[in-house]
Design goal:
The chain is an alpha/beta fold. It has 13 helices and ten strands. Strands 1, 2, 3, 4, 5, 6, 7, 8, 9 and 10 form a ten-stranded mixed beta sheet that branches.
Amino acid sequence: MLRFLCTAFAALALAANAFAQAWPSKPVKIIVPFAAGGPADIYARTLGQKLEQALGQPFVIEDKPGGGSIVGTDVVAKSAPDGYTLLMMSNTHTVNESLIPDKPFQLLRDLAPIAPVNYSDLVLVVNPAVPAKSLKELIALAKAKPGVLNYASSGPGTPYHMAGELFKSMAGVNIVHIPYKGSSGARTDVLGGQVQMMFDAITTAAPNVRAGKLRALATTGKVRSAVLPDVPTVAEAGVPGYDAVIWLGIMAPIGTPRAIIDRLNSEITRAVQAPDTRSAWATQGAVPMVMTPDEFGRFLREDIDKWAHVVKISGARRDR
């Protein structure tokens, strides 16, 4: 009996390996559950080109925005676990585990971690009319006028929003969240002075900062950004321990063969570490991330816990 079981397991392992070796034999879809032109869409296309070159099949990027990433993610969660439908996800997904508990899927129940892609800092920018030249001055102003200052975001649950909620809770200030349907509208109103500030993507904000249209007070990573090296981090400037970035990763439907997951992890790791990728991303403020599938799974669990705590203490809701 034992010999039979050993033989059966060996046969299954050989079959799985053969399946992975044959994969991909047709185009692979990477579904991006965010709007076209955003960081997830842009980096998915870069990654797709690299994977296509490495694996010899087209990697087709399909944008399916809606519901704060819920629509496109649910499509992937319900897809066949055969390696032909992948998800470009972000920390919006780990936030949504607590912010939107009634969604039709659970991230780590219905999707399998494959690999992270990159992370990039945000930058806290204010309209020049705001009488605060530093983060400490902004905190003092917010404490003197609770509920008066506003910050814009690209919508509830997005990194732009949660960076603001984390800042509010750690700095002990009351700044009102103004959600938009995308970062473009939020940015336009901060530039126009309708809203005082926002945590914006550093590469998008940097030209406005250099042109004097916005004032950068702090970046959100653990170390200063090479894109705005003269701007201190939030932790340096007055809120020790603060860290809130945008990161991206790849997942697949749960049940996708481990051999395919491992192969994808290997190719994604090679793609993000390629010298041309690193060089191009450095100018954009994006830093490659490298983890095994298991390490990425642990990272996701920790991030879910981190943002669940922020959602709880901040009172953040899906509708605001």
